[in-house]
Specification:
Layout: H1 3-13, H2 15-29, E1 34-40, E2 45-51, H3 54-58, H4 63-76, E3 92-96, H5 99-121, E4 125-126, H6 132-142, E5 148-153, E6 160-165
Parallel strand pairs: 2-3
Antiparallel strand pairs: 1-2, 4-6, 5-6
Helix pairs in contact: 2-4, 5-6
Length: 169
Amino acid sequence: MSETQQSSEAATDEPRDKAKGVLAEIISKMGIEAEIVVHDEDDRFRLEIQCEDPERVVGRRGQVLDALQHLVGKIVFRGRSLGEGGAPKKPIVVDADGYRERHAERLRGIAERSAEKVIETKLPMAMDPMTPHDRRIMHMALADNPGVETRSEGEGEDRHMLIVPVSVE
């Protein structure tokens, strides 16, 4: 094996580089021309897909992005419980056209409006079922709101968040 091949293989051993390669290959097989930009953040690797038609890689309610993220993570970390040097592995987040941040902002807005309604009516409100990540965004958005408490209820795909008014005595 030549020195160039060895260094190339060593580079793809790096989770960030391997993730970029895996995602680029999947996107290519989807028939989409795209550039993958990697952002190595403190707590995660964010792979940003830049292409002409981001809606194709986002999908309905971000389902395609979620599937891509799941696949890339499974392939990159297959058989590894820890990252390099025994450190916890950084999660891989796949995004396109700023979808993830827009979605999080939308969820925070829904959480705030729902909390206002709960405080006004003094009645609990059950939100629609959502992913663990989406529930976490909403729980965090309301964590400092003294007028409500939040909790998750239900099982599996029916798991949802409940916003409950805090009784003032």
